[in-house]
Specification:
With 260 residues, this protein is of the alpha+beta class. It is built from 8 helices and 10 strands. It folds into 2 domains: 10-73, Arc Repressor Mutant, subunit A (Orthogonal Bundle); 78-239, 3-Layer(aba) Sandwich (Chorismate lyase), CATH 3.40.1410.10. The strands form 3 sheets. It has a 6-stranded antiparallel sheet with strand order 4-5-6-9-8-7. Helix 1 crosses helix 3 (47-59). Residues 8-76 form the HTH gntR-type domain.
Length: 260
Amino acid sequence: MEELEQPIPKYYQIYEKLLEQIKSGEFEEYDRFYSDMDLVEKFEVSRGTIREAVKLLIQQGYLVREQGRGTFVTSPTIEQDSEKLMGFTELMEKHDIEPSAKIIEQNVITPPIDLMSLMELGEKDKLVHIVRVRYGNDHPLIIEQSYFVYDFFQPILDKDLESNSIYKLLYKHTNTELGEAKQQITAISAGEKEAELLDVNVGDPLLLMKRLIETKSGKVFQYSEDVYRSDRINFTTTTKPYDQNHESHSLPLELEEHSW
């Protein structure tokens, strides 16, 4: 018996029409998109149907909602190769996006006990603690919370850390060269602070990357806990063939997130 074709859901038909408009170049990047009520009137359907269509476009990286501002057309999700150590500025430049930053906190601290162990620090060592929100084309993308070993970071401590890449400053003004980084990525939900700084809703999905970076000489340079908007940035990785991958070399970075 020949199977009958299932009708295409109304929300999916609307999704396809809206996607065609976006792909045709009718909107510039970060143009304000239709409101839900505009679309309800345009397609003469329920608000629930419109929300399903718009949700698909958001999930695929064509739209982004910003709390209190509305819905905007955006470029496809920014991809970052998790196997390459690349600063935010370099990542944005690679995608032709204008990077910027805002410092939320910057101070010199005595290392907490857990970081003393993880970063192999002595009792007299100090850390530079910096929290920055990183923006692409003036839209918030990442909250960076970093701890730098003071002795390495001191030569660039007085530099402009909002307008410049820390790694570029490091290479320009010091002899420190960065080596390997061990990274761990975890899915988390936005709390009130993340929602405020990243213009998302409380409970929205985010990505937390814990990163431990060494110098080429094998000394720990930085530990960071960075929170990414998962609707704007994702991570790619390349795997080795199965028969070359029987041992695990990952470092578990099981630390409680530090508040700022």
